[in-house]
Write a structure and sequence with these properties.
Elements (H helix, E strand, L loop, with lengths): L2 H18 L1 H8 L1 H13 L3 E2 L6 E2 H31 L2 H5 L6 H29 L9 H25 L9 H15 L11 H7 L3 H13 L15 H22 L9
Antiparallel strand pairs: 1-2
Length: 267
């Protein structure tokens, strides 16, 4: 069986295992949807914008949860999965099978892409049918969504592989990784508008790729007048693409340098 066939079979295996793990489904797959339902319901009656053009706060949280979904699927899912499999000996056992490293990562990347695609669809359905959020009508806006989503997912996936090197045991994987994934969400406009943060935190947030994925989502799904509420009063999509691409390269380099197929022996 060739590598591609093995990789496709591995995708199916990864999907079955993922949806059987209740903690992964709750804290990665359903978490953004649940947070959208929670915050959207609490703040749906609060309106922002000029008279006659107001939008509800639910629309702002909708864009934020789209970005959070990409962040969680790419970064948290892979980091915890890889760290757990490495320290529990799963990767060592796979080395004795016909599964190649390439096929293994095809399975992992397929898992991330498919679960996040389903997640994006569910978030859009909740946004439209629960909170009556208007979707973009111009093809250019959907093209912007596509490249922000795909570039962001690739970036966070590479960073997730690199992050898997931090936990020193399978038991510590969630405890180490979840805070690293959670804290930036409060500093990058996912839950709180950046303008509410201190100036120095706003400047720090500009270096975090999640900030730019969130800004890209807001550029697609929020009206033009919301651009004035961004830092520098601009979407700055070009700068966002550069930032995310730089972090993608950093993630790939760190992954190459730090990823190991089996846990190193204690010295």
């Amino acid at each position: 069986m060739n590598t591609l066939s093995l990789g496709l079979k591995r995708i199916r295996y990864e999907l079955v295992g993922y949806f059987r793990a209740r903690d992964a489904v709750v804290f990665t797959f359903l978490f953004p949807i649940g947070m959208l339902l929670l915050f959207g319901s609490i703040f749906r009656d609060q309106l922002v914008g000029p008279p006659g053009e107001e939008i509800s706060m639910a629309a702002i949280y909708f864009a934020g949860m789209l970005a959070a979904g990409v962040w969680l699927s790419g970064l948290q899912t892979l980091a915890i999965d890889l760290a757990t499999e490495k320290h529990e000996g799963g990767l060592k056992r796979l080395a004795a099978t016909p599964l190649t490293p390439t096929a293994y990562f095809i399975g992992k990347l397929g898992l991330v892409f498919i679960t996040n695609l389903i997640q994006m669809i569910l978030l859009v359905l909740v946004g439209v049918f629960v909170f009556e959020i208007a979707l973009p009508t111009e093809p250019e806006e959907w093209l912007t969504f596509a490249w922000v989503w795909m570039l962001g997912l690739a970036c966070f996936t590479a960073l997730g592989i690199a992050l898997s090197a931090l936990p020193r045991s399978a038991r510590a994987a969630s405890a180490v990784i979840i805070p690293i994934v959670l804290i930036p969400q409060f500093l990058t406009g996912v839950y709180l508008p950046l303008m509410l943060l201190p100036d120095w935190l706003q400047q720090v947030a500009q270096f975090v790729p999640l900030t730019w994925v969130g800004r890209g989502m807001r550029a697609v799904f929020l009206p033009d007048f919301m651009e004035a509420m961004e830092l520098n009063s601009a979407w700055d999509l070009g700068m966002g693409a550069i930032n995310i691409a730089i972090w993608l390269v950093i993630g790939l380099v760190l992954s190459k340098l730090t990823f190991r197929w089996m846990r190193e022996r204690s010295k």
